[in-house]
Amino acid sequence: MTLENGLSLKDEVQRMRAEVATQGERVRKLKKDGAVKAAIDTEVSTLSDLKAKLQQKEKQLEESTPLYTRCREPLENLVKRRLFVIPGFEIYGGVAGLFDFGPPGCALKAEVEALWRRHFVLHEDMLEVSGTCLTPEVVLKTSGHVDRFTDLMVKDTVTGECYRADKILEEQIEAKQKAGLPPDEHDRLEKLKVQADALSSEEMHQAFLDLGIKSPDGNGFSTPFPFNLMFKTSIGPKGDLVGYLRPETAQGIFVNFRRLLEFNGGKMPFAAAQLGLGFRNEIAPRSGLLRVREFQMGEIEHFVHPDHKEHPKFGAVKDMKLPLFPRDRQLGDGKVVMDMTLEHAVQTKVINNETLAYFLARTYLFLTKCGIQHVGMRFRQHLETEMAHYACDCWDCEIETSYGWVECVGHADRSAYDLSHHTKASKVDLVAQHKFDAPRDIEYVKFTPNRPKLGQAFKQDQAAVIEALEEKPDQERLHIQQQLDASGTYELKLCTGQSFTITKEMAKFEKAVKRVAVEAYVPAVIEPSFGIGRIIYCILEHTFRSRGIQDQEERCFLSLPPVIAPIKCSVLPISANTQFDDLINQLKEQLTYHGVSSQVDSTSASIGRRYARTDELGIPFGITVDFQSVKDSTVTLRERDSMKQIRVPAIEIPELVHNMVAGRTTWDKARDKYPEFIAQEA
Amino acid sequence: MTLENGLSLKDEVQRMRAEVATQGERVRKLKKDGAVKAAIDTEVSTLSDLKAKLQQKEKQLEESTPLYTRCREPLENLVKRRLFVIPGFEIYGGVAGLFDFGPPGCALKAEVEALWRRHFVLHEDMLEVSGTCLTPEVVLKTSGHVDRFTDLMVKDTVTGECYRADKILEEQIEAKQKAGLPPDEHDRLEKLKVQADALSSEEMHQAFLDLGIKSPDGNGFSTPFPFNLMFKTSIGPKGDLVGYLRPETAQGIFVNFRRLLEFNGGKMPFAAAQLGLGFRNEIAPRSGLLRVREFQMGEIEHFVHPDHKEHPKFGAVKDMKLPLFPRDRQLGDGKVVMDMTLEHAVQTKVINNETLAYFLARTYLFLTKCGIQHVGMRFRQHLETEMAHYACDCWDCEIETSYGWVECVGHADRSAYDLSHHTKASKVDLVAQHKFDAPRDIEYVKFTPNRPKLGQAFKQDQAAVIEALEEKPDQERLHIQQQLDASGTYELKLCTGQSFTITKEMAKFEKAVKRVAVEAYVPAVIEPSFGIGRIIYCILEHTFRSRGIQDQEERCFLSLPPVIAPIKCSVLPISANTQFDDLINQLKEQLTYHGVSSQVDSTSASIGRRYARTDELGIPFGITVDFQSVKDSTVTLRERDSMKQIRVPAIEIPELVHNMVAGRTTWDKARDKYPEFIAQEA
């Protein structure tokens, strides 16, 4: 939704709120300065006008936004009532951040996973693996999670209640912005908000002081401190082997890299994939299904030569336009998501490489198949400050919901971080090899450290500095030399956060030649990582529809795409009469034979009420068996979204539904073939 | 394998070993007593004869046993080489009891789970749910796991190494038996061995003392003590909410019972099912995949009225003969598994009720579909002493492997244990209701406690005794009264292990009548519980086959049923020539369209070697594209087990393979339809 002046309606409302705030300030100042009444009255009247216009615009904004941004209450009602989701351990008062999937939720999850498997694993011939959740400490120490997988926490100094510092900060800023702020202050806090989850303890502490933030109970807060989000346990009877529940499934792939490469006949590039649970001991889980402590993930690790990140199938997606939200647009004024072709994005280096871009496209297609709307999807590049410790570029696919934009799929170029670190820690080489037909001379960039100078400058850090420089790939080595030549110095940043100034005298990088038969290299990893549970919640919001009020009740339904619908077809006899039993049993059996899940509802509720039930479950097709059916073996077939019905010979139904679910034919084609059936649903 | 004298070959070997031991004893005694040489020589000669016969019989036994009992080494070799399984965190030296599934293992697991879902969940319209692994302590305290989910552990007093006491005891007994024991002693120890996992700490301690058991390092052992097998962790940031990783998925269903019943429209009986992970912190995991610390389970909780355990579909399975191994045969001499019809088993109360029997049949059919052989399957009833704390009857489906008989599926009648305890602990009624059309007078058995007498006799235990008596169902109440009338007393056993003698004066049970509109009752639960990982290992052993030695290499393969094979079809060009590419791509695409997973192998290895590879992966069908194919668009289709090939138009292949995988047609029918193709594989 973009207005003529180029501002989105949302931004326009934001601007008007600031205007109201400034005007309010002006009135207060006049009053304080004891201005004449007439002058004050004029300004007050202007303020009233502005407020009225704002109110109108706010209403317009609400009505113009997609349904999913304002469906939370009726949707959560439906989701709980129809048992898509059950709060975990409800009878014991529940545990925050733990949810169970009831029958339709469980089936929906299974269908989304099956689609994920077909769309990614089978389509790309990926190697699917399944590792354990229990992970020994050494693995997660190596990956950096033991030291850095933390959120900043603050404690209410009186009640001891724990909070996530960044969430508290975000909320406080939003509250201040909503109450109205001068434009400068608004923008300053907006920038702070966007970077909230990347602040250091000290920066966070300063922000809390600056804004005078109090706890929800009005008490003071402790200084923010890092809290590790992994669940810790002990493996074995002796208590000496510390283990964690994996915070991501990726490490289980990295540690098996050598075996997987071997299984793949040594061929590169290749991808491995894993569907499985991840665990994060969230400090204060809220936002329903969006921030939970145990969640299903789907992760892909695409291993590739660090200098060859082209993708053979990029041509098939290069013309696709994706809603991109690059880094440099996020902190500026005119935050705008742009639809951009992937070819252009890669050419202009907005996206780092073809492989990363290829996966963004595949993710977009997957989510579209799941029913996520284009308007509520964007690919947001990570800010430098927020990038995970391992990543060299990262794009989140965010989906808009009633909770705002939610990260659902991360696409990180993790470079060689993980494999190099596991190689070092395990002493097992995790490398791929490229064998030449005959030994050949290859160019490389030789690094010659000047150890005395380095030692003098960096003392005990010398070894770390040399190691970091040794790890730089050829291209970057050349780049460093260029910088050294140009400015005399180069700033080396370590993953520990330390920074070192390298001077021209300390190191030399120059092109050289060596004779080799085999090139061994540590592959880079490009990782699309899916939060299946979050995606499911977004699917529910994006497919939520209302038919309006009927009989004093809002008739809502889920417009789930047939391919992921938990149940594909309902079978409803027009009345609870045993004469329908044979036909129903035959239908059910034939549907099962064709792999179509179905649900018979022969309760005595009216047919309309029964359809309302199946609509709430998102069942796309419904068969009604009526008295005519017994005579001529035809039944009606109803499509959920249009509520249109056609009359079809019972024997043809199972294959027809199967083909519509599999996407081999469409409802429109079926309507062309079979006569329409007119009936009232009430 | 049964000999004419009614003894199985195995028992015969056992008997002969005892004979050799007795004869050896006789020789030693003669020597010790200084008997004349001639007498000694005679007995020594008899001993030699006996030993020779034993050796011969032992060889016969080995050769007559199914392949799976002696395939461990080549199978484990295949399983690791083909990456069905990878030891967890191998590059870090591994963690005992943790395994990952590599690509074929992961696909096999997915197929077994999909079959489980179709065979149980869809076939019986069960409500599938998916709960969390993280479980708050209160739930597992209520279920009894916090207090009683333990194994007895012993520690080497010198090295501190930990062992499972029952496994050590079993091994020591087996070693002694193998070395030869007099029949009486053999039988006494056999009984001890069978009950090893049900001994109390004191009994175990006594057994260790009696047998003089030392640790494998020759040191003493600590006294056995219970070790809780749950992984403990802490949920949330404060550290005050203790949680465990669930040891079974069942509790996640019980706590949701009320919601599930509501979802089911209040209708009873019904079943809920769950596929998910379970965790047990095994003391000393060995036996490869059979005893692991994290494992996939499939559990079904069938809720039923405690007095109506008939099953509507029992008629469909009543004539099936299952290999039953009831309790009373396990401790006696002639341990024999009997094939018995389920109707007979239920009528004679060998199996407690129809529902339990029905599930045994469904399990048998499921495992048969998975390729488990009848000869290596038995249903063993739990001994009274080994029954889980909650169970009132329990049958394990055990599968024979190279490790012996392995429990793979438990079938427990958990009675109302779980629902009653969760009701008490959560104060939420977990009951089902039966509404009468009109209020009616119903007979029941009224319990009148004599509180003064009970108080006098049991003091502070009075309340527990009354509660226990109140919980008895009507039928048992009548039974108690009969016993009181007959003998004057009744022995009341509590689940705590305490026992109380109730006398005639203390309690009265009599038939009475009350007027009710609704009958509320706590349902009983019948639970089939599947260890998916164990079943997968058993499938691998049971489908392992050898074609004998070819080119100095044993050609082994997995005869996996097509329905669960990880990949359904291979596509092999006769040579690495680009002219085959089009046809191969078309085949691959059409196979995918028909939902058939496939693998193209266009490496330069010989066709025979490539088939050997696909055989090791258990791929049931193989398509070969040759030069003729390019001319007439026909290809050959090979079946793995028979290695026979037929010539089929390429366009008909995908549907043909799909139908064979789905069980809609067979290889034999395909052979009738298409001409045979004769070719050498080498």
From TrEMBL, chains A, B:
UniProt xrefs under NCBIfam families: glyS_dimeric, PRK04173.1
Similarity comment: Belongs to the class-II aminoacyl-tRNA synthetase family.
One Gene Ontology biological process: mitochondrial glycyl-tRNA aminoacylation
Residue ranges occupied by any WHEP-TRS domain in the UniProt entry: 12-68
GO terms, molecular function: ATP binding; glycine-tRNA ligase activity; transferase activity
UniProt xrefs under PANTHER family: GLYCINE--TRNA LIGASE, GLYCYL-TRNA SYNTHETASE/DNA POLYMERASE SUBUNIT GAMMA-2
Annotated source species: Vitrella brassicaformis (strain CCMP3155)
Enzyme Commission number(s) of this protein: 6.1.1.14
Gene Ontology CC entries for this record: mitochondrion
Gene3D superfamilies in the cross-refs: 3.30.40.230, 3.30.720.200, Anticodon-binding domain, Bira Bifunctional Protein, Domain 2, S15/NS1, RNA-binding
Keyword line: Aminoacyl-tRNA synthetase, ATP-binding, Coiled coil, Cytoplasm, Ligase, Nucleotide-binding, Protein biosynthesis, Transferase
Name of the protein in its database record: glycine--tRNA ligase
Coiled-coil annotated spans: 13-64
Chief localization: cytoplasm
